[in-house]
Specification:
about 300 residues, alpha/beta, Arc Repressor Mutant, subunit A, D-Maltodextrin-Binding Protein, domain 2, 3 domains, 7-stranded mixed β-sheet
């Protein structure tokens, strides 16, 4: 069993890039964590870390060992945690993610968890804030539109979003089915921010050139943007999961062919070390079942 303990200390130090943070996470002293690593190095026959002023840097031997034993040890701990979910769990779960995705895809589907005694706390923000909350363990789970780092995070794909250029039926009728770049650029653009993160891939795909114009209005909330466009104030690009109802009801029209639409994946991410907590495992698996995803 001592080798399993040493391996767990090694993986925490590898993922956290620090002996002291690993020791704190495991509830042991830093000298004890250092002893675990030294004992493992004697078995491996190679140094696993190089000490730096701030934390440690993994060697190639550490990279190889983490790739070999990490999934096995994580799987074992996750399995053991699943056996403990037969008892009442409940408690508080913190979930970070984009506000529009949480609103349209997650929030209204968590009623069974609330009925089981869970308290859910959502944290919203951009990519940097989401990962910051996850890495600090402030968030137990995170929803992200970028693929997480497989060294420190476990993750599973939730869905693939498609980006659609949408406008009101009135404006669509004025422009016709195949508006030119010049015609479309004369209509006010409603965007998430000045960098046009959703606009660029669709515009480039449609017209084979990057957009060279500015938005008439920016606001970092896709739901508000959708309402602006429905009311006929301009055009935008939205993910299909968000505007599906407006498209089916005729309140919005898309001039992007679905089969040609640029795509992006959404992921549910977690710190691999958190899988020792059966409460987090239970909620993670619940959310994955909502999207029929398997780890």
């Amino acid at each position: 069993m001592s080798h399993l303990t040493h391996l767990r200390t090694f993986l925490d130090a590898y993922r956290l890039k620090s002996f002291s943070r690993a020791a704190q996470h495991l509830g042991i002293t830093q000298p004890a964590a250092s002893m675990h690593i030294k004992a493992l190095e004697s078995v491996v026959g190679k140094p696993l870390f190089v000490r730096r002023a701030r934390g440690v840097v993994a060697t190639e031997a550490a990279d190889e060992l983490a790739r070999s034993v990490g999934p096995l040890l994580d799987g074992l701990e996750s399995k053991l945690a699943s056996y403990r979910t037969g008892s009442p769990l409940g408690g508080t779960i913190h979930i970070a993610g984009p506000s529009d995705f949480i609103c349209s895809q997650i929030a209204t589907r968590l009623a069974p968890l609330l009925a089981e005694g869970y308290l859910v706390r959502f944290h919203t923000g951009n990519r940097d804030r989401i990962y910051s909350l996850l890495n600090a363990s402030t968030a137990d789970l995170a929803i992200t539109a970028s693929q997480p780092d497989e060294h420190s995070h476990g993750f599973a794909r939730l869905l693939t979003e498609r980006f659609l250029l949408v406008l009101s039926p009135q404006i669509a009728a004025q422009l016709g089915k195949r508006p030119t770049a010049d015609e479309l650029s004369r209509i006010p653009l409603i965007a998430y921010d000045e960098d046009l993160p959703l606009i660029r891939p669709v515009w480039t795909s449609m017209f084979q050139v990057a957009p060279s114009f500015q938005a008439a209005l920016t606001i970092p909330d896709l739901r508000i943007i959708e309402n602006f466009v429905i009311s006929g104030q301009g055009w935008t690009v939205l993910p299909d999961y968000l505007c599906a109802d407006a498209l089916s009801s005729g309140r919005l029209v898309s001039i992007t062919r679905r089969e040609n639409a640029p795509t992006n994946d959404f992921y549910l991410a977690w710190n691999k070390m958190s899988m020792r907590n059966p409460r987090i495992v239970y909620v993670r698996d619940y959310i994955l079942r909502l999207f029929e995803t398997r780890v």
